[in-house]
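Appendix B. Chain record.
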Amino acid sequence: MAFYRDFFETSSLKSALRALNRESPGVRYYRTTAEQFFYDVWSSYKKDQCTEKETKNRIKRIYRKLKAQSPSNFQSIGYIKRQFLGQEREFFEKYRDTYFMCDIDKGNQSRFAVTYEIAEENASR
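Structure tokens predicted for this chain:
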């Protein structure tokens, strides 16, 4: 409520964001673009979920799940790891296209020119 009340009274996005932050202790709201927000989320994902330890844990969980589903016909952990790591770009593109609703409006692919290369560059900073 604070955001809209302040925004309609002042017509200032900056002032409205300050009001929102005052009303939301422990949370920081800021002005950003949809593209930058997506890049920020990707960077956080890479930092938190793609450490060597987390990757190893995820691959072990996948391995155990596959083994439980088909005890006589499952792949090695090494194979699963190569598949998992080799599909990162494909997963990135799937998440990007979902976030920017490219399936609903094909024009969004050119409107939001978010690339894996730029996402990886941002994540490595």
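Further analysis of this model is presented in Appendix C.
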